[in-house]
């Protein structure tokens, strides 16, 4: 087991210990090294190890025995089916969002004005890049930018549909802030505005599809893995 870096220590400790269990470093019934040994091996505090063990007990991989220690209860990941279902659900959400975003960008390209383009660029500048910190605030800024593209379509029904699904869309944004799913970078966002500004629906369509493709492809790979 390797020492961990200093970000998200509890989550990383959970994954490190889970990885060893699933790799069958210990067999069912084996006793884990004590807190002090695990703490030294992973270079984290004993409190972090206790939190990791608590989570793994709740997931059915470990059991604690009063006065005896912590033992391996299972080497099968019971969370995998739920994880796979979650990934499939996210893929469906992204595909639905792509359909809305593509058509909105096409319409926006036909109805864009210099004022609309300026507003989109201003909102994108305010959005910035996510560099840690207040995740909820960043999601709100990103959602505001994408809603502005929907508004630029001039289609009232589409605007209302997007508002109705805003919680689901915010969830897709949050998913790209983790490590598994790539977050579209600033240039990908700029490219959508540039394509809308051309007034050519096909260019706007292609820009949004390029924006979404790496995310959907990553989810497809994760579902199949």
Automatic annotation (TrEMBL):
Record-level Gene Ontology MF annotations: DNA binding; DNA-binding transcription factor activity
The keyword Transcription appears for this protein: yes
Superkingdom as given in the UniProt entry: Bacteria
Domain HTH gntR-type: 7-75
Gene3D superfamilies: GntR ligand-binding domain-like, Winged helix-like DNA-binding domain superfamily/Winged helix DNA-binding domain
Listed SUPFAM superfamilies: GntR ligand-binding domain-like, Winged helix' DNA-binding domain
Transcription regulation as UniProt keyword: yes
Keywords, ordered alphabetically: DNA-binding, Transcription, Transcription regulation
CDD domains: WHTH_GntR
Stored PROSITE patterns: HTH_GNTR
Protein name: GntR family transcriptional regulator
PANTHER family assigned to the protein according to its UniProt record, in alphabetical order: REGULATORY PROTEIN GNTR HTH, TRANSCRIPTIONAL REGULATOR, GNTR FAMILY
């Amino acid at each position: 087991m390797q020492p961990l870096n200093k970000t998200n220590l509890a989550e990383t400790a959970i994954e490190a210990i889970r990885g060893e269990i699933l790799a069958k470093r210990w067999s069912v019934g084996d006793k884990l090294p004590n807190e002090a040994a695990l703490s030294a091996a992973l270079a984290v505090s004993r409190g972090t190890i206790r939190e990791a063990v608590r989570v793994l007990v709740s997931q059915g991989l470990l059991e604690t025995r009063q006065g005896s220690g912590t033992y391996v209860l299972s080497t099968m990941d019971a969370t995998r089916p739920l994880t796979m279902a979650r990934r499939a659900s996210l893929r469906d959400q992204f595909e639905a969002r792509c359909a809305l975003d593509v058509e909105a960008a096409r319409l926006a390209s036909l109805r864009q004005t210099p004022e609309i383009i300026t507003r989109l660029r201003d909102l994108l500048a305010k959005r910035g890049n996510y560099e840690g910190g207040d995740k909820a605030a960043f999601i709100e800024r990103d959602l505001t930018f994408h809603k502005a593209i929907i508004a630029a379509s001039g289609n009232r029904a589409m605007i209302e549909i997007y508002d109705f699904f805003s919680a689901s869309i915010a969830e897709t944004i949050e998913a790209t802030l983790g490590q598994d799913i790539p977050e579209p970078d600033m240039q990908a966002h700029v490219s959508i505005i540039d394509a809308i500004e051309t007034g050519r629906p096909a260019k706007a369509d292609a820009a949004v599809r390029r924006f979404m493709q790496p995310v959907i492809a990553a989810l497809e790979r994760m579902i199949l893995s």
